[in-house]
Amino acid sequence: MDDKLLKKYLAYANTEEAFAVLFVKMHLDKAKGYWVDIVDCRRYEMSPDNFHFRFVVGGLYKRNIQPRYPSKSAYTIDGKFDEHGYYLMTRAITWETAHKDIAKQKAKNVAAMKFKITGVCCGQVISDTTIGSCAAIFRS
User: Fold this and answer.
1) Structural domain boundaries enclosing 133
2) Based on the number of CB atoms within 10 Å of its own CB, is 71 exposed (0-12), middle (13-18) or buried (19 or more)?
3) d(Cα 131, Cα 39) in Å, to the nearest integer?
């Protein structure tokens, strides 16, 4: 188990950026199979909901590097599987892999598929614009 990586991931996991990544994954179908790079985002300050954003702007990068997860047997002690510890570590490894892959692609000037999500109300996206294509508007 890599305690350094877990500490870094846990510090990141409660940030606005982390919630923005999850928000994009939940509301932007095009994000499936891509790494999400948040450029800018703003939450509603008075909202207790961590997923209540005014807007989220960022880019999607292809997944060129695949995470390498430890075997489940490494998290099995005396026949008991530490599910929480294992899944926490897999999330940390995924987070680290995403940041490395995005950094490599940025260094090579790979263009991301840009997006801007605005008008979030009551957990529903009012509009999603993927730059370079037409806007898809969702209304309840």
Assistant:
1) 3-137
2) exposed
3) 14
Beta bridge partners of 61: 35
Tell me the per-residue pLDDT of 45-89, one tens digit each, with 9 for 90 and over: 888 888 888 999 999 999 999 999 999 999 999 999 999 999 999
DSSP-derived secondary structure for 49-109: -TT-EEEEEEEEEE--S---PPPGGGGEETTEE-HHHHHHHHHHHHHHHHHHHHHHHHHTT
Q: What is the pTM of this model?
A: 0.80
Total number of domains in the chain: 1
CA–CA distance, 139 with 8 (Å, rounded to integer): 38
Angle formed at CA 26 by CA 122 and CA 86, multiple of 5 degrees? 125
